[in-house]
């Protein structure tokens, strides 16, 4: 049995609450200890959050801050099986709005991460993938995780393209060739990837060519002095 405390002042608890007997220094120390258990966050930062609740309008997320944050349920349409306990990346819009609520956004987190990937792809000369959304003047508009990029008609293929509409809806690999940060404009190219493949094919063919060897190719052009044959990256006459 727990030992009774004879000198506990229950009347004092009723008057001052359980924290009523703390002096200013002790209260400050307790507040500091509590604050040290919280995550330090910055607005416009992307951070991981844990789903702690789902309503018919919002997803409630815990990011280790002093209060939970809300994200509209509509931003999780691509995660139909989302459940309590799942972790997702979120963008901190407002640490405390007019109602004292922590406001988060998954959509903005995805866009910020997409921009980071685009800048990294330009710097490291790596390949990105996107979906062609629509045709526009002079080329196509692609979307890469919420960020739109312009694919000029001259950068679609090594051969001239007359019907841009056939590419709408397709997933394509591209390389970033230019970013205009002031206007958030991105220019990409699929042609450079085709050219790289053709160059690799050309090197492979040249390295394996032997005198007297019989090869198959496609007729590329006919002239008065001969026929040009495409051997898959190398033209022969």
Q: Which features characterize this protein?
A:
13 strands, 5-stranded antiparallel sheet, OB fold (Dihydrolipoamide Acetyltransferase, E2P), 4 helices
Structure description:
There is one protein chain. The chain is of the alpha+beta class and 237 residues long. Among the domains are: 46-110, OB fold (Dihydrolipoamide Acetyltransferase, E2P) (Beta Barrel); 126-210, OB fold (Dihydrolipoamide Acetyltransferase, E2P). It is built from four helices and 13 strands. It has helices at residues 10-16, 24-36, 106-124, 191-208; strands at residues 46-54, 58-62, 69-72, 87-94, 102-105, 127-136, 139-144, 147-152, 171-180, 185-189, 218-223, 226-230, 235-236. The strands form three sheets. A five-stranded mixed barrel has the order 1-2-3-5-4. A hairpin with a 7-residue loop joins strand 4 (87-94) and strand 5. It is elongated and about 105 Å long. The termini are far apart. The model has no long low-confidence stretch (mean pLDDT 81).
